[in-house]
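Final report, closing paragraph on structural work. Over the funding period we assembled a curated collection of sequence-structure pairs, and we close with a single example.
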Amino acid sequence: MATLDGLVNSALAGRIGRREFVQRALLAGISAPAALAFLEACSQSTQTGGPVHLDFMVWSYAVDTIQDNIKNFEQTDKNVTVTVSDTSWNTYHDTMATKFTSGAAPDVAYSSDHWLREWVAANWIAPLDQATPSLAAYKSEWAPYALQGMTLNNHVYGLPYYADLVIFMYNDKLIRRAGFDKAPANWDEVATQARALKDKGISQYPIDIPMKKDDPWTIEIFYSMVYSRGGHMFDEANNPVFNKSGSEAEQTLQWLRDAYTSKIMSPAVLESAEPDVVKTMGAGQHVFTVLAKYNLAELNLGQHAQKGNFKMAMMPGSTNSTVGFVRFYALTKAAVDRNHAQASEKFLQYFGGKTNDQYLVAKRWALDKGLGFAQLPLYDDPEIQKAINAWGNVDLEKQQAKVAAPKEGLTPWWGTWDVYAREQIGNALAGTVSATQALQNMASKWQSLKR
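Its predicted structure, as stored:
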């Protein structure tokens, strides 16, 4: 029985799957029906207050903070213990796919909006509104883009861990030197202000937007510029609309080409990734950019010559929309099969929900690490307001969050298309193809992958 106890503990902890559990039991001379009956009895005990051990999988970021949060959670519930494992962001997706398909799935795991369709289609994660309805009830307090990024077929699959926006940033000190007292409201005004900054010798290349084909942010930024004009990349059936004549995507790509050829945009953008742009913006070489919001904190708080001079503005354009993205806590289907849903719900309640009517963990991430969040009530927290206003604008950020949208077209082949699309965007800027042809090429590639 000692052998069976060990196997049951491994199965309930998620270290082995049911198939491996049965195989090992047979090798130990225990029949499959007897072993499964014992496993079921032990599983049932976890739903009636017995001890439960959960496995939690994350990517390698601030693991010491995660471990401390786990310790704090375990003090609130002595019947649930948690072990955290991590791997790098670059290997996380493939590591998780291996765990899911080999029967070694964790109970709770980090996930991302751009993996949602794949993980749901593979039946790797469970809908919270069915497995743990109390957690899905928080959705009324989430930014719309985050809710959309965690919802598929009208089911909610996650609780926000981290959420952020792509925003428009500018050097307020330098535009005032050029005679402007407010940020540009649309892309034509961006070009107008940039020409004035150039003509007055304040900045040789006022615009610096990362467009390197190897930088994943390139496509996020392009989406955001299209959204801000009121446009879309795909329709609800995931058909391309960006290649239509006169589309907002065509306007955006032509604007980028014109800025590049008129030399109000840095000639280095095709070789510039996010860190390069932060460095040159911080040095005062450029005035306008589009980056993920966390870079604004770096520019205003980091060691830069222009430290403290940067502001965000609503994304220029008719709708001011932009890309919002969310990383979330997911409940695995394996946890439900192990009867760990109730214990996982307690854990997720602490990590992604409220404790004593506060989003304790989300608030800690925001204050300690400057991470963005999807829980809109946090914008009203005095400590959060003070922290954000030290480098940004909490009211403007909240306003931008409300009109942000998730990336469209997040299908299983989106990642392959993304690599090709970034190359075509670069080709259009360089002038080797027209904006129209680049978009047509992107649409053709999409259709070939879709088939």
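The domain at 164-324+386-450 is CATH 3.40.190.10 (D-Maltodextrin-Binding Protein; domain 2). The two ends are 53 Å apart (CA to CA). We thank the funder for supporting this effort.
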